[in-house]
Structure formats: C-alpha cells, structure tokens
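Action item from last week, closing it out:
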Amino acid sequence: MRRGAFLLPGLLLLTEVAAAGSTSPGNPGTSAPHPRPAPEPRPVAIESPAALTRFFAALQALEAARTRGEPGQLVRILHFGDSHVAADWWGNAVRRRLQARYGDAGPGYVMPGRAWKYFHHERALAPRANWQTLGLGRGETGGFWGLSGVALAPRPGAAEAAVIAEVTDYEVQVGLRDGEACLEVRVDGAPVFEGWVGDDWAVPAPGDGPLEVEVVPVDEPGTARPVVGSCRRLVFLRNVSPLPPGSHVLAVDNGCGGTPLVLGMDLRTGAGGVLLDTLGLNGGELERLDRFDPAVRRALLAHASPQLIIISYGANDMTASGFTRAGYTEAARGILAGLRADAPGAAILVTGPTDRSHRRKGPRRELVRTNEPLIVAALRDAALASGCSFWDAREAMGGEGSIDTWRRKGLAGRDLVHLSEAGYVRLGELLSDALLDANRQWQAAHPSRPAGETTP
C-alpha cells in the first residue's frame, strides 16, 4: 500500500471521533489512541491464475502418470531472481512442498565449483574450484552463460569443478565459444568421458559409452564468425545407466586442454516428479534477463522445456536512478514478451518484491519507501498485460512496513532487505500455498479423464 493511502482514512477517523465526543479514562473529552496492528503474514491469492493453465495441466498429467505407474514424467520450474532466490531457502521451501505432493525428481540445476562466494543450494554442495566466473553479476552483456546467468572458465592448475549430491541421473552442460574444446567428466573420481567435442566431433549413439552426448549449434543462421569452423555449440553430456543410490561427486575438468565453459549440471533422482531450479544472482535486477546472448538463452530454455517460469526481481531496482513506473512497466513487458517467445510452452508467474527498508534514516530509505509501491504496481501491470500471473510477495508478508515486524520476529536480517532462513521458508510456504490453492481450483474445474476416454 502506498504511504499516501493511509492519510485520508486517518483524517476521517479523527473527524468522526471528535464529532462523537468520545473520552478516555485518563483524559476526559479526548479519544484514546489505537495503535495500528503490526503487519503479519497472510494468504494472498495469485492474480490471473488462468495464465498458469499450462502448469496446472502438466501437474494433472504428472499425477495421472503416477497413478498409472508410468515413471519418469517431469514438471520443471525455473525460478529467476536476485539474492532472495539465490539463497535457495525460498525456492527449496516451494520445491519441498511440490515434490512431497507430486514426486521428488531431484535437486535440479546446480552450478558446480562454487561459482560465486555466497553460493548455496539446499540439496547440493559445490566445493570451490577457483575457475574464472563469467556472467551477469559482473555487468557483462551478450555472454555465453548458463541459465543461472554465469559460466565457469578453467584457469591453469585449477581444481576440478564439482558438485556433491544424492543423484542417480545427471547432465553436464558445457558451452563451446570456439567450436571445440577438450574436457573430462568424472564420477566419484573415475573418468566417464575424456576427449574433444566440437564442430567435427562424431556424437556416439546411446549405449556406446557411459555418457550420451548431444551437441547443439546456437548461432543464428547466417551469423558471421571470425574463424571458419568456430560456430558455437552447446554440449549436453548425460549418463546412460543410473548411478547407485546415494551421494556422488560429479566433476568436470579440462586437463586435456581446450577452453570449455561449464554452464551447469542438471541433477535428478531418476524418478518422475517436480524439478525446481533456483536461478538467482546477488544484486540481480530485472533487466539482467535481457543480457543473455539471445541465441544461447533460446537454446537453453528450449532444452530445459519448463512448464513454469517464476520471475522474482524488484528489490534492487528500488534504488535505481531515474526510475519511473511507466519506464519500468514498459521494460518488464518487453522482457516478459521475450521469455514467452523463447519458452512458448511455459506459464509465467511474476512475484512482486518483498518488503524492504534501510537501516539508516535518510534519502535512501525515502527512495525505497517511494519506489517500492511503484515497482509492485509496475510488475503487476506488466504481468497481467502480458498474459502472465502475479503474486504480491510484499502483501503476503503483511504489506508496507512488514519487514520491521519480520526483523523483530527473527524472520528478516538487520539490513532490513534480506530474510533469515526461517523467513525465506515462511515466504516459500506462502507462495506454495498460493500455487497449490490455485491449482486445486483449476483441477476442480478441469477434472482429468481416465486414460483412453475422449471428449464427446
């Protein structure tokens, strides 16, 4: 709610009290003040839930497949955002709730090698590898990055880039900037692939080795490249046979030479169910979604084939210079249109930013106070005008000023921006409650039909 929204009701209340001549025990003839209740978390419904039809239909098909005993069907959610998303506590609360209901398909997309200092994933550990991190967080544009917005480039003598997690199936995603590169993939220290991949490399048929390799060109037709045969490629290396149950170390190295870019690993349990990929970066702003190389982003989204994309930005945009609601709305609409074009099979849910403030009084706090409701309104306008859904995270926290209440209850940090682990879990519960409630309503209106039954 905007600050000004409190003024008129307040004036009317004072006028009514004075006219009634009410009194208080300590001061006859005057009214007793009634402090405004502290903002509390509350259920907030998803706006325009019909825009999530593709996602709800995918959940319905997944549940029907599980009922029939058909394994392996997946529903994938990509959650893009800033540090609130990068922490993975928020996303993991949603992941845990949906996987408990529809099946645990695994940790999902994870960057190996601890690509940034504060990397955290609830279901995977990434030891530091000292590879060079390229990507959105460094202000670069048009880069060859993974869906998380970063890529790892090898340094001489650096350790392998690894992930430790409980998985049975995995996929290593690699980018080739110069047409080819040499790399090694190891599982629990044992090599499962070593060699060159690139323009002239013959892809083995499934079953010819421990890994199946898929090479995808990403340059647009007719794109001029500086060197003949240097057309860029995406390489996906995935296991053919499932790993034994338990924790495994999955590693990529370039010990044989070359300059591969590690874009991420997709980690799965081998079971059907839900995957939720947290694709957040500290300091992330909405416009960073437009800094991807367009052809690379399109190819990666097509490969991921998500049924739902969640967009959670806005907290860092509140202090941007020259901010206007109209300009932000227009930019958001353009970005959402691009995502819809690149991932036509996905529903899109935009979440408004969480409530925030500033520890010190002054211009920065007032700037946040002024811009926060404008950004919420701009994101809502852009989402609904673009055929997407919207969920107001600030309203779910309790509305304006709720960050102070959450801080007093140990649900937010001292910076009055970030939440604590318990706070992010609560936020994830609020979002997953809203998603599941909207899904229940959709399922009730669209009951599934038994296999083989057709619409009359």
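Closing note: Confidence is low (pLDDT under 50) at residues 1-34, 224-229.
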